[in-house]
Write a structure and sequence with these properties.
The complex is a heterotrimer of chains A (959), B (87) and C (417). By secondary structure, chain A is of the alpha+beta class. Chain A has 5 domains: 112 residues, Ubiquitin-like (UB roll); 175 residues, FAD/NAD(P)-binding domain; 75 residues, Orthogonal Bundle (Arc Repressor Mutant, subunit A); 178 residues, Gyrase A, domain 2, CATH 3.30.1360; 134 residues, Aminomethyltransferase beta-barrel domains (Elongation Factor Tu (Ef-tu), domain 3). Chain A is 21% helix and 29% strand. In chain A, the strands form 14 sheets. In chain A, strands 9, 10, 13, 14, 15, 16 and 30 form a 7-stranded mixed sheet that branches. In chain A, helix 16 crosses helix 21. The longest helix of chain A has 16 residues. Chain A starts with a strand and ends in a 14-residue tail after the last strand. In chain B, strands 3-4-5-6 form a 4-stranded antiparallel sheet, with no helix packed on it. Chain B contains 1 helix and 6 strands; from the N terminus they run E-E-E-H-E-E-E. In chain B, a hairpin with a 5-residue loop joins strand 5 and strand 6. Chain B has one domain: Folate-binding fold, CATH 3.30.2270. In chain B, 9% of the residues lie in helices and 41% in strands. Chain B has 87 residues and is mainly beta. Chain C is built from 12 helices and 19 strands. In chain C, strand 1, helix 2 and strand 2 form a beta-alpha-beta unit. The longest helix of chain C is centred in the N-terminal third of the chain and has 16 residues. The chains are: A alpha+beta (959), B mainly beta (87), C alpha/beta (417). At the A-C interface, strand 7, helix 2, helix 3, helix 10 and helix 11 of A face helix 1, helix 5, helix 7, helix 9 and strand 17 of C. Strand 33 of chain A pairs antiparallel with strand 17 of chain C, so a sheet runs across the interface.
Chain lengths: 959, 87, 417
């Protein structure tokens, strides 16, 4: 046997640029322009991989993305890429390819013995055994044998993948004759057009099949057509696979960008799509039809014409249709001894350079590891090193079916083809069932004309026209030998029979039970064969059996291209503070809090000592804190007061201008959704302050109610959060500190008491001060436009030195607010917490008007006595803090049940003992009771108390 | 990626929109709303397989609007501004 | 009688060309009446029919399936089985399911390939670790085998995870359930079908429910595409289309339908031994016995009945995958699909009698129906046999919505389904 490179020929290779790479430890020569497969064939390497289940030797079957067999792991440019289709991947100097599913090599695979046990492991055998003692006892050994290529944990994609959005009038998929004719038509009509083809060079079948178009050789016409299209402004994307059609005609494209870069994902929104993706040649059923050396006839012609490789010396061409004759002639002309075995009573007339036997079919292929000969149904045997098969053509309808196009069985094609276009997508050429080149060109041009008009002449085919005249051959039931239907998954005709016997007759059951069509090729060469056999066994027409659902992607698509730039810092990007640089300069340690990157504490180090010191100093003197993340949403207009009454659980319209009030927002189901301070800036103007992580959600909710219930001309909502930066100065010396700052406001408590707000001036610009406190100490929230924040911050820091003020991070603030029993939404509340669980039952009992969530506060559940309520939890002096997330438990017989849990827990540096908050069943009425607290199996005791542990009288607010 | 027609901004990618619920779900109000009636408003939905009127928010412009859409075919038949006060 | 599956029977058949195997389930002509009807030939419906026959001795049961059995969400999920739930009510339900799964292959004489390989939920901040502690403690109190993992523990079970401290979602630790795992989803449907059929249950494929036979305000059977079929008790287990069937019966459900996508990579040699999910990315992944990575993420945000994937969610999920496992960036997507799930406000199922007497509900499983199949089947069988709740299903009754007694796992644990 010997495939070899011819001295001449090969449109796609550059013989002046030889290259060398390795396969399974063997040196392989090739040329620039080769695929890995064409170079392997040129070097007469026949066994390139092992099948999935039986570890049968596998050779190159085809020359495109439909390849079921020739998968390799490729190490190149420092990366290992598993499951590369050798038929598509370019050969590159120095790359190291390794066969998949074989160890150590495809030729000498140590699991090859499995094939001898094949009769005991038919389809679905694993459902019937491995029952004792359990599956897990066998699983790892079986897993180790499954799988194809290898993942190298150290290999990562080379950089981030590009993603491109594009819009066009027309997207043409396939730059073969139909696609080129369509694009030429659209280009002439001035439609914005994108033409894609998964090959590196245009023409599709025109690159290897004979033909004369508009007086030129087919391949020359194709090259000229692309040049013309570029002149017309059509975007032509070679090496690009359209892998999926999604809603509203969005088509996903995977564009290969050379080896050094990941594929590019294109999302093309096309007004119309023409699928001219051609057809895929099918195998023929005969025993051992999976041996290396058995190939698609069309692929052999591709290797001859495009790569100058002849795939054998003594070649049997087995066919049931006319299309293989051109292959036979070409190979004979190139020097091979060719015998055509045609199952039909008579074949096509015309020039034949070969021995043709009509009315004969192959019954088996002979050979141990690779093809050595063929046996015919008349008993004759033919020695051969290669068997080329053409079992007919399956139109590439994947994209059409993804777009919900309907198929119809067509006897003259022995295949499913589109029944007609959808409103957004039409199919042309061989994908639509066209056979002759003239019809193919015409169908492409016509499809484009129907969409966008155009007056370009339809390209004229002047060569001899293709015919098909197929007489289908399907595998028949009750064969005793092994006929492969699905090469990669090792599904044989017997497996299909077994599935039928066991009632897995629905196509989807057939697929799932036998794994037919579930391999990496997703059944592009195998599905129809399986369906036809199932039809025969069950006495149905193939059309009745139907097809499985076509799902994206058409061909395996790079994960890296789908991820694009979304990785690292660009994945769920963090929101950043205007003062970030200033914090960094102070040595802040940043953490993520609700999507914001905020200083946890300052000064580096382990954290806990720094945090404790910040909290201690805040109570002693003053604390300066960046509170810019607090939501600031303005509600403006004559209906503003009515609106805030409806939005808040607390009545808010009674608030006087210049004053603030703390309140809760509920969801309609009565759950506490957010809390914060509402400031009334004027009669018709409120400022909603909400939790940092909730700003977007609160804003959307306010808008929804505004537009649903209110007069949108008399009520406006504006989210000013990012416009303003806020710095809080808090603590006993806060007022003294602030009075040093020239803010042009009266800081006297009579003018600016606790829960008051006023406008002032900072360096000639706007400024607002609110006396609200999240620490329990006298506090001032100072808001200035974000671009003034740094000035304000630096001045406060500088002034603060005189007062020994501490700059504190979020962690210290958490301690301060927990000492006071102030809640953090989502931390000290959960998705079941209602306001009366937090000790805020007043509005529920008193308010009679409507507000969001009101009715839900009176359901059976809302009125239960054993609700979980906010409590403080204390432990004995000298003990460490409770674990946040620990549960309160009580005994129920020999078991325990949870009565709630610890939501916040800290060591209080000011109090000198631990403090904690929790949600505990009936907590409000159990003050003074001791409860068992459980954390990771360890038990402790804690005493229930009031949430507030510090300054119970609240005198420090005005101290 | 579906294209939704915002009545104010034109066709935009689905990722810019937020589903606001079935149109016509009137909020029951007053002192005597039964638990069942309230639960029906809060939770129970027709959730039809075919076309239905839905409230959507175009997050980039902040406007809520009514879109008639088929949940099975994803065909959008119509979209119009929310007239306000009528859910 | 169905023939017993075993290594020995496989060996014998291997020698005789596997000609002795019988249909896994019969294809009966539907009768005009049954003792009970189950609408929906997915895992839950088939399991309900099986337990009706096995536990309650009610064998004159029909399972009506619109298409092919196991073709809905049973055949479209990512096969994760776990019981790491927060509330005792959930633990009772999913814990029962988990226990039944462990012995299901033996029970059904069908290898459903239950693989308890453990599942880790990775946490990325101290705040998430606090929620994780809350969750683990709740689970341990409820008798679930949950553990709180440090980042070193995570490294032990998922060594190729991205442990870079500079990662967008650095690893702080996680929640581990060692007995969680995966199973072969189709086999669960087929195993129940075979066992139920063997006990006399009629599994009727290509039979669509078109309406209900309602007499004197009570459901007395189903109008089907193959004609009327009567029964005193009817159950529906048609997750994804529950609202449509409810409409035929004249009531609404607290359900919205959304697509949940999943996808698989090309098969590779074993590289990941556990189920891994990340709270930061929302992506979860396991490796099937065939070697494919089975990948899922969050719901599509648009109500839909179209069982197909789309790009935006896929891109997000895959980006999350690569963030978790940078080496998987070298892999390729082989297949993507979607199932339609019943999304309930509290993400807990609805089990119990419907507003139409005689019609019983098994629906609202959200994204978590597969793991609940044995328990969901047990509960529906109990309802159909007794006309009353099993103690485990009572909290999941439809009446909980008017009472406000939601069982909101997300609310309590912060861990998404």
């Amino acid at each position: 046997m010997s495939a070899r490179r011819l001295d001449r020929g090969g449109s796609d290779i550059d013989r002046s640029r030889p290259l060398e790479f390795a396969f399974d430890g063997q040196k392989v020569d090739g040329f620039h322009g080769d695929t890995i497969a064409s170079a392997l064939l040129a070097s007469n390497i026949r066994i390139v991989a092992r099948s999935f289940k039986h570890h049968r030797p596998r050779g190159v079957w085809g020359a495109g993305v439909e390849e079921p067999n020739a998968l390799v792991d490729v190490a190149d440019l420092g990366r290992l890429t598993p499951n590369v289709r050798a038929t598509v991947a370019p050969a590159r100097p120095g790359l190291v390819a390794r066969s998949v599913n074989a160890s150590p090599t495809a030729r000498a695979d140590r699991y090859a013995f499995l094939d001898r046990f094949a009769r005991f492991i038919p389809a679905g055998f694993y459902y019937k055994t491995f029952l004792w003692p359990n599956w897990r006892s066998y699983e790892n050994r079986i897993r180790a044998m499954a799988g194809l290529g290898r993942v190298d944990p150290a290999s990562v994609a080379g950089g981030r993948a590009d993603q491109i959005n594009a819009h066009c009038d027309l997207l043409v998929v396939g730059a073969g004759p139909a696609g080129l004719a369509a694009a030429l038509q659209a280009g002439s009509a001035g439609a914005s057009t994108i033409l894609v083809d998964d090959g590196a060079r245009p023409g599709g079948s025109l690159r290897h099949r004979a033909g004369v178009i508009d007086g030129a050789a087919a391949i020359d016409w194709a090259e000229a057509a692309v040049a013309e299209l570029k002149r017309q402004g059509v975007e032509y994307l070679p090496s690009t696979t359209a892998f999926g059609v999604y809603d509203h005609n969005l088509v996903g494209l995977a564009q290969r960008r050379g080896e050094a870069r990941p594929d590019t994902l294109w999302r093309v929104r096309a007004r119309h799509v023409i699928v001219a993706a051609g057809a895929i040649e099918r195998p023929l059923p005969f025993a051992n039809n999976d041996l290396p050396g058995i190939m698609s006839a069309d692929a052999a012609l591709i290797y001859l014409r495009r790569y100058g490789v002849i795939v054998g010396e003594r070649i049997v061409v087995a066919t049931n249709n006319d299309s293989a004759y051109e292959v036979a002639d070409a190979l004979a002309e190139a020097g091979a001894a060719v015998t055509v075995i045609d199952s039909r009573a008579n074949g096509r007339a015309g020039k034949l350079a070969s021995d043709v036997r009509f009315g004969r079919r192959l019954t088996s292929a002979r050979g141990r590891q690779v093809v050595e000969g063929a046996m015919l149904n008349d008993g004759a045997t033919i020695a051969a090193d290669c068997i080329l098969v053409s079992g007919g053509w399956t139109p590439t309808v994947h994209l059409f079916c993804q777009a919900r196009g309907k198929l119809a069985w067509r006897d003259e094609l022995a295949a499913f083809a589109p029944a007609g276009p959808t409103s957004l997508l039409s199919v042309a050429g061989a994908a639509a069932g066209a056979i002759s080149l003239a019809d193919t060109l015409a169908s492409g041009a016509k499809a484009a004309r129907e969409f966008c008009g155009g007056a370009a002449p339809i390209p004229v085919s002047a060569g001899r026209e293709n015919t098909l005249r197929i007489d289908p051959i399907w595998s028949s039931a009750e064969r005793t030998d092994r006929v492969w239907i699905d090469y990669q998954s090792d599904v044989t005709a017997k497996d299909v029979e077994l599935a039928a016997r066991e009632n897995f007759v629905s196509v989807e059951h057939l697929k799932r039970y036998t794994t037919l069509g579930m391999a990496t090729d997703q059944g592009k060469t195998s599905n129809i064969g399986g369906l036809a056999l199932m039809a025969e066994i069950t006495g149905r027409q193939i059309a009745e059996v139907g097809t499985t659902t076509y799902r994206p992607p058409y061909a395996p698509t790079s994960f890296a291209s789908l991820a694009g730039l979304r990785g690292g810092a660009l994945m769920s990007p963090l929101k950043r503070l205007p003062l970030e640089a200033a914090h960094r300069a102070r040595g802040a340690v940043f953490r993520e809090y609700g999507g914001w990157l905020r200083p946890a504490y300052y000064g580096g180090g382990p954290g806990e000592p720094q945090i404790q010191e910040e909290a201690r100093q805040a109570r002693r003197s003053a604390a300066i804190f960046d509170a810019s993340t607090l939501g600031k949403i303005e509600v403006v207009g004559p209906q503003a007061a009515e609106f805030v009454d409806f939005i808040y659980y607390n009545a808010m319209s009674t608030l006087r201008p210049g004053r603030c009030r703390y309140g809760l927002m509920l969801s309609e189901s009565g759950i506490v959704f957010d809390d914060g301070v509402l400031a009334r800036l004027g009669e018709d103007r409120f400022l909603v302050s909400c939790s940092s992580s909730h700003v977007g959600a609160v804003h959307a909710r306010l808008e929804e109610w505004r537009q649903d219930r209110f007069d949108r001309k008399r009520l406006f909502i504006h989210n000013a959060t990012s416009h303003l930066a806020t710095v809080t100065v808090s603590g006993p010396r806060a007022k003294a500190l602030l009075s040093e700052l020239a803010l042009r406001i009266d800081l006297d408590d009579s003018a600016l008491p606790h829960m008051a707000v006023c406008d002032g001036d900072f360096q000639g610009g706007e400024m607002r001060v609110a006396r609200v406190s999240f620490t329990g100490d006298r506090s001032y929230e100072i808001s200035v436009p974000a671009d003034r924040a740094e000035d304000l911050w630096m001045q406060l820091i500088e002034l603060g030195k005189r007062f020994e003020a501490a700059v504190i991070g979020v962690e210290a603030l958490m301690i301060l607010r927990a000492e006071k029993g102030y809640i953090g939404i989502g931390k000290d509340t959960d998705g079941a917490t209602m306001p009366h669980d937090l000790g805020m039952a007043g509005p529920r009992e008193r308010r009679l008007d409507e507000y969001v969530g009101r009715r839900s506060l009176f359901t059976e559940e809302a009125t239960r006595a054993d609700r979980r309520q906010l409590v403080g939890l204390s432990v004995s002096a000298g003990e460490p803090p409770l674990a946040t997330g620990a549960h309160g438990v009580e005994a129920v017989g020999s078991k325990q049940r949870s009565i709630g849990y610890v939501t916040s827990s800290y060591m209080s540096p000011t109090l000198g003992f631990p403090i904690a908050l929790g949600l505990i069943e009936r907590g409000a009425s159990r003050r003074g009771e001791a409860v068992d607290i459980r954390h990771l199996g360890e038990m402790r005791r804690a005493t229930i108390g009031a949430p507030c542990a510090f300054d119970l009288g609240g005198t420090r607010l005005n101290a | 990626m579906q294209l939704f027609p915002c009545p104010f901004c034109g066709p935009r990618d689905e990722t810019e929109f937020h589903y606001g619920g079935e149109a016509g779900n009137v909020r029951p109000e007053g002192a005597n709303v039964s638990a069942d009636f309230w639960a029906n408003y809060l939770w129970f939905r027709a959730n039809p397989t075919g076309p239905s009127r839905e409230i959507w928010m175009h997050m980039t412009c902040g406007e809520f609007f009514v879109m008639t859409r088929d949940a099975s075919t994803h065909v959008v038949a119509d979209s119009s501004p929310n007239s306000g006060r009528e859910p | 009688m169905t023939r017993r599956y075993s290594a020995l029977s496989l060996l014998k058949e291997g020698l005789t060309g596997h000609r002795g195997w019988a249909p896994a389930w019969r294809t009966p002509v539907p009768k005009t009446s049954y003792d009970a009807i189950v609408i929906g030939g997915g895992g839950h419906g088939l399991a309900a029919a099986y337990y009706l026959a096995k536990t309650h001795g009610i064998r004159r049961t029909a399972v009506l399936e619109k298409g092919w059995i196991g073709g809905g969400n049973t055949g479209r999920n990512t096969t994760v089985i776990r019981s790491n739930y927060f509330y005792p009510e959930s633990v009772a339900l999913y814990g029962l399911s988990h226990r039944l799964y462990k012995s299901l292959s033996a029970e059904l004489n069908y290898n459903i390939m239950f693989s308890p390989r453990g599942m880790v939920t990775v946490c990325h901040s101290e705040a998430e670790m606090e929620i994780a502690a809350r969750t683990v403690n709740a689970m341990q109190i409820n008798g679930v085998d949950a553990e709180l993992f440090s980042s070193e523990d995570v490294r032990r079970v998922a060594p190729i995870y991205n442990f870079s401290p500079k990662a967008r979602f650095p690893v702080h630790g996680g929640v581990w359930q060692p007995s969680a795992g995966v199973a072969r989803h189709d086999a669960v449907a087929w195993g129940y079908a075979r066992a139920a059929s063997g006990l006399g249950v009629d599994i009727i494929q290509n039979c669509e429910a078109l309406g209900f036979i309602i007499e004197a305000g009570r459901c007395r059977g189903v109008e089907t595409s193959l004609g009327p079929i009567r029964a005193e008790r009817t159950g529906m287990a048609v997750a994804g289309h529950s609202s449509a069937l409810a409409a035929l019966a004249g009531f609404k459900l607290p359900i919205n339908s959304y697509a949940l996508q999943a996808c698989v990579s090309e098969p590779v040699k074993p590289i990941l031994d556990t189920v891994v999910t990340s709270l930061g990315t929302g992506t979860y992944v396991s490796q099937s016995d065939k070697g494919e990575l089975v990948i899922g993420g969050g719901l599509d945000r648009i109500p839909s009945y179209a069982q197909r994937g789309n790009l935006p969610v896929l891109e997000t999920v895959i980006a999350g995958l690569i963030e978790m496992f940078p080496a998987f960036g070298q892999l390729k997507l082989m297949r993507q699909w979607a199932g339609i799930v019943d999304v309930v406000p509290d993400s807990s199922p609805i089990i119990g009698e419907s507003p139409l007497p005689g019609l019983y509900l098994n629906c609202g499983w959200g994204t978590g129906g597969f793991k609940a199949i044995p328990a969901g089947g047990t509960m529906l069988a109990h309802l159909l046999a007794k006309g009353a709740h099993h103690p485990i299903s009572r909290p999941f009754d439809l009446s909980r919505f008017a009472k406000g007694r939601l069982i909101d796992e997300a609310a309590g644990s912060g861990i998404a389904h």
